[in-house]
């Protein structure tokens, strides 16, 4: 009691202490996240203009909804980002140039978007601007909110029109002169005949060439633009798959086998023991499958080629009532019973009229009794005159596709229709007309044609999925946790080797990547690797759909120039080729292709009708630098050694054929202009983007 009294006396003091502690916690979090600035609420800043996080999120959500879930969140983020970036950068240029869209241009865009909207077309089906004005005036009077939305829509059209003007200005400013058209003509049509010797780079072993780290660094420093890179992470990880144990497989098998025989269960309602029919004795195989199988399949007739290939012979030759299994297929234990054997047609051609009613899947306003009565009436008409079914289907059928095809369902195989429909077309002969009820409604069916009958079997199959039990999952979790702790405290690689776990490595993961090779979409792993407090050597466990992964950060790379180590895979082949070229050139002697061929123990090859537009050498492939160098030679002249893409060449220009001059090169100039304009806007945008000051925070939020 004395202690409680002291607490009461100092309650205000305690509350103050707790409040200060909470404030300190919040303040620390604010400091870690960059203070009280608004930057944490912006996705990015482009040339000083912030992109709101909330608005960006709304656009991403809307984009995903429009794509109906066919893309991931990260893909949607990237698409919306490109749209936003394009809009901001282009709008800046539009504003700087003072481009404005005239009202006529806005109306033209509106006309293009609304020409098919009946609300804004006249009696002749043409777009009527007066109807738009009437609509807008009505909104202004009756719905101020929708009126503001319309004004925003018009403003958006105006901005789009101005951007179109800017895009057209760029395209119009790109073209080709008649002189360039003439050059294009000659590049395509001037040809050369050549004799050459190729000494391939492969003639020198890679072991004979050494590339130092200093040489790689020097090359990278000389080609900085090529080796600029984003911030990246290297990680390594181990996958722990949640797979059933042998004991789990046996347990699933035993569970399935227990369904074979009748069993007695106590009925708590009637206070008696009930006998539950087993798979062998059940009289309703479909209901048994629906109630007991992890895979629910209709019990229908199947031909031998429709049965599982591995078990087709055994299943097809069962006696009626005989059960086959348990057998394992695609992660399931299965029991199959042959219910019935029958001679049925391989395919059927039929027409139908579907009559829906209240409560049926086809819907409709009529009652079930009215639907049944109408179906019987229409069936009577069709029996009297079968050619009438097409006309009646068009008028009455609630199956839109069949109504469009005059009720014709075409040819279909057994099992493609719902069971009761299927039973009717299989159990009756060509020319039969009848009424069948399904979950969709009442069908008037006319069997038009059946192919020759052959043996089919009605198979009922109950399946039990083989999956990891709770005990197996708990053991896996313990193994994962044990490894995570050991790898965090010790050496990740050594711990994995000791436990015989396979280590997978991933290099140069970027901040906005979402896929980890080997496990697919794992955005959480990438986000973790790029957290500010994450350090090289950190280890963390992640759940994946098939189990777990334990990952470790092995390297953090800053944005900037690649290190010699990271660039080595790209630079070493380049420098190796350069060094081999010098070694080959030193070995070459002789002033003619024949002398060089003899000196290098190579054959002289020929290439005819070579042009600069398609610089391909027969027997060597594309070699633009070689063909370009030879074009400057005189006929009969032999080149010095030329370094190409695949080796070093010595080439003799045998002949040169100049294409005849044309009266006008306008078609070629137009062709060049069209080709250049196709990519003009994309290239302009890339140039503006490279110049823009962009602070991209997407990776913090997605």
Automatic annotation (TrEMBL):
| Any Pfam family the entry gives | Rotamase_3
Question: GO molecular function, one example?
Answer: peptidyl-prolyl cis-trans isomerase activity
- How is the protein disposed in the membrane? Single-pass type II membrane protein
Q: Where is this chain's protein located in or outside the cell?
A: Cell inner membrane
InterPro entries assigned to the protein according to its UniProt record, in alphabetical order? PPIase_dom_sf (IPR046357), PPIase_PpiC (IPR000297), PpiD_chaperone (IPR052029), Trigger_fact/SurA_dom_sf (IPR027304)
Principal localization reads membrane
Task: State the source organism's domain of life.
Answer: Bacteria
**Annotated ranges, domain PpiC:** 230-340, 345-449
What's in the keyword line of the UniProt record? Cell inner membrane, Cell membrane, Chaperone, Isomerase, Membrane, Rotamase, Transmembrane, Transmembrane helix
Q: Does the keyword Membrane apply?
A: yes
A single Gene Ontology CC term: plasma membrane
Family membership, please give it.
Answer: Belongs to the PpiD chaperone family.
Q: What name does UniProt use for this protein?
A: Periplasmic chaperone PpiD
